[in-house]
Amino acid sequence: DLFEERSVTNMFTSIVGNVFGFKALRALRLEDLRIPPAYSKTFQGPPHGIQVERDKLNKYGRPLLGCTIKPKLGLSAKNYGRAVYECLRGGLDFTKDDENVNSQPFMRWRDRFLFCAEAIYKAQAETGEIKGHYLNATAGTCEEMI
């Protein structure tokens, strides 16, 4: 009942992200984690794996390079898009949303989506490479997110 069914991301974000994020806890180490079988049975697994990502980005024979943009630092959607562009133009293959960012008043999901799309297209045009950005989608459809 503590975590969303079928969401390993939600569980790990809650356990690791939130608990380990406390600045007062400096010497904390996760040594063991037991997931109740009833909960693990709700997870169906990822829809695809690394090979699909490599195919989408046309990157083989080396690690994929990416980073997480931290919008909780107060970036506007426009500045977030600029950060995405600079990362991709600078050589990264992809960027991704922080797992805790959804559609906050300071940066709405739709605005972030549009600025990220612009950043990707611009970086691709300038580098000649396929680039990616992984938006945090917390609803079933794009229409619900917007």
UniProtKB/TrEMBL annotation:
Its cofactor is Mg(2+). SUPFAM superfamilies: RuBisCo, C-terminal domain (SSF51649), RuBisCO, large subunit, small (N-terminal) domain (SSF54966). Residues 1-39 form the Ribulose bisphosphate carboxylase large subunit ferrodoxin-like N-terminal domain. Keywords: Calvin cycle, Carbon dioxide fixation, Chloroplast, Disulfide bond, Lyase, Magnesium, Metal-binding, Monooxygenase, Oxidoreductase, Photorespiration, Photosynthesis, Plastid. It holds the Pfam family RuBisCO_large. PROSITE patterns: RUBISCO_LARGE. One of its GO terms (cellular component) is chloroplast. This is Ribulose bisphosphate carboxylase large chain. The lineage of its organism: Eukaryota, Viridiplantae, Streptophyta, Embryophyta, Tracheophyta.
